[in-house]
Design a protein that fits this description.
By secondary structure, the chain is an all-alpha fold. It contains 3 helices and no strands. The longest helix is centred in the last third of the chain and has 39 residues.
Length: 119
């Protein structure tokens, strides 16, 4: 049995990456949700924290409108059912798109306010 050759000399360890810059913390609301609702100075806004819920409500509304559209077409019978199958998803898409656009517009307004507040 022969001995295995010794492993080649290892290369010097590569330098470790420089420590990354600390990430800025997400802005914390200094007041609770209920306190922000009753804040008469309007120094902190409630809407940005509610926008996801408002958007989900918009999606539910879009689904209901699409369902009602399909039912209206289905009540007419015949070829209107086929039209309802085509038009109902379009109604859903348009309502969801409108809910998304309006949600983004509201958020843009609040982000503009945040950026103009910075010195």
């Amino acid at each position: 049995m022969s001995q295995a050759p010794p492993p080649p000399p290892s290369q010097p360890p590569s330098p470790s990456p420089p420590p990354s810059a600390p990430q800025p913390a997400a802005p914390q609301n200094s007041k609770g949700f209920v306190a922000r609702i009753f804040d008469l100075s309007f120094s902190e806004f409630v809407t940005p924290s509610l926008i996801k819920i408002i958007f989900v409500i918009g999606i539910v509304f879009a689904a209901l409108m699409a369902l009602f559209t399909f039912i209206a077409f289905a009540n007419q019978g015949g070829g209107a059912v086929v039209a309802g199958i085509i038009i109902a998803p379009l109604v859903f898409f348009v309502y969801v798109l409108m809910a998304r656009v309006f949600s983004e517009l509201y958020l843009i307004l609040f982000r503009i306010e945040e950026n103009t507040r910075k010195d």
